[in-house]
Predict the structure of PhnB protein.
Amino acid sequence: MVTLNPYLNFPGNAKEAMEFYHSVFGGELTTSTFAEFGQADDPADADKIMHGQLEGDGGVVLMGADTPSSMGDPGTGGPISVSLSGGRDEDAVLRGYWAKLLASGSEIVPLEVAPWGDAFGMCTDRYGVTWLVNISANAT
């Protein structure tokens, strides 16, 4: 089985961001710093997150890290968005994720019935990550 996971890069606030996603998706969060792996070439990077992994409830897996100072600013937004989708059986769960992501972010497209019949919405969270939520009108 091949698994594809989003891996988000942050400009020094990965610990805060991953803890936020943990509050959204539940599950287990593990983080390791550059110092823990002996990879803090710049002392300013020692306490930054070299790897974080959230194994959330319902099979959600999200990874993230701080960009080391030698690599520059990872930027925000960009050409990548993270998509959450499911059917009617997951409606309440997906709407719960939506509400938590949007609470301190901004709405791009309201989560409502789209022309193709599914409930769809887009938002940007407080860390600049764009999320798409699609709730299929068909049972899963």
